Amino acid sequence: MSSDLFEQLAEIDVPPIPDHLDQPVHDQVNRWLLVVQLGEFVLRCLPLAAWTFCRAVFCFVLFTLTGIFPSETKRR
């Protein structure tokens, strides 16, 4: 036996990695990815889509009642 740590480690037999070792890690990562993506969709995408839809409906109702389409740019 040699006194060098790296040479001692090189002589040790390491068993192969089991096939099912990564499965719990994949399950946990996939669960968190699903939670984060659903959270982002609910908290960011749906409010923006609802706001855009409400603006369109408001402009439609305003145009129906007054005949004037509201313009976002103001002329000087």
Describe the structure.
With 76 residues, the chain is an all-alpha fold. 67% of the residues lie in helices and 0% in strands. The protein has a domain at 31-68. The relative contact order is 0.05.
Number of helices: 2
Q: What can be said about the biggest beta sheet? A: none
Percentage beta strand: under 5%
Overall helicity: 55-70%
Mean pLDDT: 86
| H-E order | HH
**How large, in whole angstroms, is the Cα Rg?**
31 Å
Structural class: mainly alpha
Number of strands: 0
Low-confidence stretches: none
Shape call:
rod-shaped
The rounded distance between the terminal residues' Cα atoms is 90 Å
Task: Offer a few descriptive terms.
single chain, 76 residues, mainly alpha, 2 helices, 67% helix
Précis, in short:
The chain is mainly α. It has helices at 5-11, 23-66.
